[in-house]
């Protein structure tokens, strides 16, 4: 699986443009992206094989010794000096704003030349095979139970090529990831939807995982047709890895994105070195921290991937930064500068975010709950890093009574409340561990990037409604 | 577009094609507090091509992106790949919409303005609201967009629509001593009115101050909850999405035409119309992604599901003679609730939520409330730290809609929607 030939052929133009813009800007970087995605889907009545969410273009980042400037464009061609002039004109500002520019130190530009590659098995699977697989899975789900009204099977592989060039740095990377989804629409006592998600850089594993979960997804849908609304209240809960990840992501991940520190938008800025969670809690983020959907080699600012420990034994020890926020805070960037695409700005963003496993056995955790719920599968979540409130929605929960899981399903389950109260209530952490690489994360309500999250099972006490 | 169009026209294997192109130039300002941190500009073209191949009594289709990187040979290869992919797809036949040329433009007073000067004026209008003692705007992002959206297809559609619009994301904050709270503001418009921008941000600044003083009320309580336009729109979109042709075709709809969504209700009856345009909204359009013209459609009338709506393809699948087009805006008719009616009993007016949580299948409505104004029957106080939940079908049956109406984003309709008997915890 080769690095993008197109980007490879643009190295000279990138260097020339960096040099041309370098006459005015002491720091100039260019990021070239070539992301190719395919979406393959089949359901009861239709099917699809087409390009997915890809991108191909360039973004320039400049620093004039004081502030930052960016310019996004589709191609680098022609006279790079003329293009540099066009870019300089495009990012000019109204003269009255000049005095209002920030003063941030120049980013470091440490010399480094390296090419990174991680292999996939995507070449072993042609599109016809994948579509045939999706059609067979959809048909199998429809035939298993007459109450299945529709069944969707989706496979979405994508490959990423990125080229990053500054005066002193020239980096390239190429890797891939894929997701598989099974979903059924089920008509019973009431209608219900259930799904199963796989993520890997091996399509063989994705397909095997989907095939192994056809019974499970129908059983879950059947249970959800009986699911009732939860009685609002404060409960002991056990989380599955998906909900653990959702808590890590929403409760704390967004709160330690350090561009929020610069804007005084995160309470975490004032809590470094303090207990913010139960002392048995450890949390990480980083493209190098786990092997999943956000495991790149360098970020969109050309900073090499990190494994950042955010919470150590309950104490907040570090945040996540992009180049601009690290520059303003005079800290080292942590490799968390990410863009929705070359068309959008880089922000401090999460990558693979998770709690470390503990020592408890899941069965002991369930046995310790007199009355509560085990919560499963992320639906959505919303952060509030300034005020440390969270809202996390699980697809469903199963009631626990006298230390045993019952057949009582509740759906949906909205978990809300104070972040420190939730994290400090964590009393048990299982020895199991799973990171789920199928999520998309927005910043506020925009700037979508692929992320993973997860961890072990947690026992905590939270408000459900 | 000309090269790819020529290649598509030359390809004998195709029974049809469509080209969607968005040319965007933007000018963007990113403020940290009152300081300008980053200035951005973009100059990009997004082109997506869909090819259609009739085969074996079925229709196959496949889409691909065309990037500036592609040579003519690359494009030819992409078309061949798409043809191969389309032949793997066996969908029920349908016709692409037909129609002629059209060039339209959303009205905007920003059309001929210099983005640098306009950007500064918008920033000034935002920060003019920063007058609340203890208040600040901790972050502000201003995006000035000029979009040219084109659809061409093999049946003669050649349509262009232009939009000049602005998005402001601002973070009003209130701080006293070491304590600080914030709210989120997303404001979009096609006509720049500095006073309106300042007033909108000022309203949010005042709410941020109220969030600072807000306390958690005694809970649990059962109470009427007032939703505001953003959440009303989300609720109405949930109900209208259920009536979309695509949802019906996929057997994923809960309601069918004739179903009473407010059965045995004693509240105001919902009448909801999907529309092509709402004044001032950047979502407004003259045609959809297929290039199909729109027909505004009342999808819920007096609480009863009255019509389906959606794209040409899925409309044809359902046997609809004249599909409505995939309408982007929504209108709800006003109700009977007056301000005086509201004051007759306690209520909680939700000014800011983490996100309204809605589940049609599980009959659920709820969410975390970041700021609400709690009227206890005598006085109104700001509250926070609570969440609400209820049974969707029950609150739909008894809902009340305000007489007063607003236009906000892609929504026009009642300023308030009252949900009776919600549990607040």
Low-confidence stretches of chain B: none
CATH class descriptor of the largest domain in chain B: Alpha Beta
> What is the strand content of chain A?
35-45%
Q: Give the CA-CA distance, first to last residue of chain A.
A: 48 Å
Proportion of residues in extended strands of chain B: 35-45%
What is the CATH fold-level name of the largest domain in chain B?
PmbA/TldD fold
Biggest β-sheet of chain A, characterized?
8 strands, mixed
Protein chains sharing the most extensive interface: A-B, 79 and 79 residues
Distance between the termini of chain B: 56 Å
General shape of chain A:
globular
Count of alpha and pi helical runs of chain A: 11
Low-confidence spans of chain A: none
Write down how many β-strands of chain B occur, each being a DSSP E stretch of 2 or more residues.
Answer: 22
How many H/I helical runs of chain B? 9
The largest pleated sheet of chain B is described as: 8 strands, mixed
Q: Going by CATH, what is the homologous superfamily of the largest domain in chain B?
A: PmbA/TldD superfamily
Radius of gyration of chain A: 24 Å
Count the E strands of chain A: 23
Net shape of chain B = globular
Average of pLDDT of chain A: 95
Give the gist of this structure:
By secondary structure, chain A is an alpha+beta fold. In chain A, 22% of the residues lie in helices and 39% in strands. Chain A has 2 domains: 5-36 and 50-117, no CATH class; 233-464, no CATH class.
Give the topology.
The complex is a heterodimer of chains A (465) and B (425).
Chain A: H1 5-8, H2 11-21, E1 27-42, E2 47-51, E3 55-63, E4 68-73, H3 80-90, E5 112-117, H4 127-144, E6 148-165, E7 169-187, E8 191-200, H5 203-212, H6 214-224, E9 233-239, H7 241-253, H8 259-262, E10 283-285, E11 308-312, E12 315-316, H9 323-329, E13 337-338, E14 347-348, E15 352-355, H10 362-367, E16 371-382, E17 389-401, E18 404-410, E19 413-418, H11 419-424, E20 428-429, E21 434-443, E22 446-455, E23 458-464
Parallel strand pairs in A: 5-7, 9-16, 15-22
Antiparallel strand pairs in A: 1-2, 1-3, 1-6, 3-4, 6-7, 7-8, 9-23, 10-11, 10-15, 11-12, 13-14, 16-17, 17-18, 17-19, 19-23, 20-23, 21-22
Chain B: H1 2-10, E1 16-32, E2 35-55, E3 58-66, H2 72-87, E4 101-105, H3 115-127, E5 135-153, E6 158-176, E7 179-182, E8 185-189, H4 194-213, E9 221-227, H5 229-241, H6 245-249, E10 272-275, E11 297-301, E12 304-305, H7 312-317, E13 329-332, H8 339-342, E14 347-353, E15 357-359, E16 364-375, E17 380-383, E18 386-391, H9 392-398, E19 400-401, E20 405-408, E21 411-414, E22 417-424
Parallel strand pairs in B: 4-6, 9-14, 13-21
Antiparallel strand pairs in B: 1-2, 1-5, 2-3, 5-6, 6-7, 6-8, 9-22, 10-11, 10-13, 11-12, 14-16, 15-16, 16-17, 16-18, 18-22, 19-22, 20-21
Helix pairs in contact in B: 1-2, 3-4
């Amino acid at each position: 699986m080769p690095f993008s030939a197109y980007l490879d052929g643009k190295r000279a133009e990138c260097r020339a443009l960096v040099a041309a813009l370098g006459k005015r800007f002491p720091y100039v970087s260019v990021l070239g992206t070539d992301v190719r995605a395919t979406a393959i889907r089949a359901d009861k009545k239709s099917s699809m094989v087409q390009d997915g969410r890809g991108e191909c273009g360039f973004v320039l980042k400049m620093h004039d010794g004081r502030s930052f400037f960016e310019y996004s464009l589709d191609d680098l061609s022609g006279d790079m000096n003329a293009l540099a002039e066009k870019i300089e004109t495009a990012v000019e500002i109204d003269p009255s704003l000049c005095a209002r520019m920030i003063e941030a130190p120049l980013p470091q530009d440490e010399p480094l030349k390296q090419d990174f590659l991680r292999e996939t098995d995507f070449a072993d699977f042609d599109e016809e095979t994948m579509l045939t697989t999706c059609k067979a899975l959809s048909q199998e789900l429809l035939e298993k139970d007459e109450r299945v009204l529709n069944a969707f099977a989706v496979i979405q592989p994508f490959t990423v090529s990125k080229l990053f060039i500054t005066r002193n740095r020239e980096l390239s990377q190429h890797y891939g990831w894929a997701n598989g989804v099974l979903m059924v629409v089920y008509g019973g006592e009431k209608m219900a939807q259930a799904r199963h998600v796989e993520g890997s850089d091996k399509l063989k594993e994705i397909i095997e995982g989907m095939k192994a979960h056809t019974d499970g997804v129908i059983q879950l849908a059947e249970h959800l047709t009986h699911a009732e609304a939860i009685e609002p209240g404060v409960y002991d809960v056990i989380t599955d890895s998906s909900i653990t990840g959702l808590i890590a992501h929403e409760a704390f991940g967004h709160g330690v994105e350090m561009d929020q520190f610069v804007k005084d938008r995160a309470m975490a800025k004032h809590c470094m070195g303090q207990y913010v969670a139960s002392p048995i809690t450890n949390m990480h983020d980083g493209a190098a921290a786990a092997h999943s959907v956000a495991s790149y080699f360098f970020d969109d600012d050309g900073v090499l991937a990190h494994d950042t420990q955010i919470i150590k034994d309950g104490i907040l020890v570090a945040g996540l930064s992009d180049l601009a926020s690290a520059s303003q805070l005079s800290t080292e960037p942590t490799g968390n500068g990410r863009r929705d695409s070359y068309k959008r700005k880089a922000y401090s963003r999460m990558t693979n975010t998770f709690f470390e496993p503990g020592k408890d056995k899941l069965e002991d955790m369930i046995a310790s709950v007199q009355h509560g719920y085990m919560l499963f599968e992320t639906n959505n979540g919303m952060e509030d890093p300034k005020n440390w409130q969270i809202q996390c929605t699980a697809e469903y929960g199963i009631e626990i009574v006298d230390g045993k899981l019952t057949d009582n399903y509740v759906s949906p389950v909205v978990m809300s409340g104070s972040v420190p109260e939730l994290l400090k209530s964590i009393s048990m952490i299982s020895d199991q561990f799973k990171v789920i690489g199928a999520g998309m994360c927005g910043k506020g309500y925009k700037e979508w990037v692929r992320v993973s999250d997860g961890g072990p099972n947690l026992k905590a006490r939270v408000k459900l409604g | 577009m000309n090269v790819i169009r020529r290649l598509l026209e030359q390809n004998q294997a195709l029974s049809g094609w469509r080209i969607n192109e968005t040319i965007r130039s933007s000018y963007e300002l990113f403020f940290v507090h009152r300081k300008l941190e980053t200035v951005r500009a973009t100059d990009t073209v997004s082109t997506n091509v869909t090819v259609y191949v009739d085969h074996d009594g079925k229709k196959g289709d496949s889409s691909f992106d065309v990037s500036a990187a592609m040579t003519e040979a690359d494009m030819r290869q992409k078309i061949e790949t798409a043809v191969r992919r389309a032949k793997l797809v066996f969908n029920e036949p349908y016709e692409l919409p037909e129609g002629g040329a059209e060039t339209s433009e959303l009205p905007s007073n920003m059309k001929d303005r210099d983005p640098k000067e306009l950007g500064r004026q918008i920033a000034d209008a935002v920060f003019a609201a920063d007058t609340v003692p203890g208040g600040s705007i901790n972050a502000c992002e201003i995006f000035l967009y000029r979009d040219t959206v084109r659809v061409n297809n093999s049946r003669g559609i050649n349509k262009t629509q232009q939009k000049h619009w602005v998005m402001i994301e601002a973070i009003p904050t209130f701080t006293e001593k070491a304590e600080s709270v914030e709210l989120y503001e997303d404001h979009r418009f096609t006509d720049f009115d500095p006073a309106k921008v300042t007033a909108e941000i000022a309203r949010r600044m005042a709410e941020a101050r109220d969030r600072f003083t807000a306390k958690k009320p005694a809970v649990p309580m059962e109470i009427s909850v007032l939703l505001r336009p953003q959440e009303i729109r989300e609720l109405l979109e949930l109900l209208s999405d259920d009536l979309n042709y695509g949802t019906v075709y996929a057997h994923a709809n809960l309601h069918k035409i004739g179903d009473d969504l407010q059965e045995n209700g004693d509240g105001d009856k919902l009448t909801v119309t999907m529309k092509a345009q709402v004044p001032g909204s950047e979502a407004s359009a003259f045609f959809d992604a297929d290039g199909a013209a729109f027909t505004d459609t009342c999808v819920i009338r007096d609480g009863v599901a009255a019509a389906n709506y959606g794209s040409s393809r899925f409309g044809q699948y359902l046997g609809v003679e004249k599909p409505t087009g995939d309408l982007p805006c929504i209108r709800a008719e006003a109700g009977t609730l007056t301000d005086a009616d509201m004051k007759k009993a306690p209520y909680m007016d939700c000014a800011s939520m983490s996100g309204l949580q809605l589940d049609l299948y599980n009959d659920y409505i709820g969410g975390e409330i970041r700021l609400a104004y709690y009227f206890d029957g005598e006085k109104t106080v700001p509250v926070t730290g609570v969440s609400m939940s209820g049974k969707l079908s029950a609150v739909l049956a008894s809902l009340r809609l305000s007489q007063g109406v607003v236009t906000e984003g892609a929504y026009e309709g009642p300023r308030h929607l009252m949900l009776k008997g919600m549990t607040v915890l």
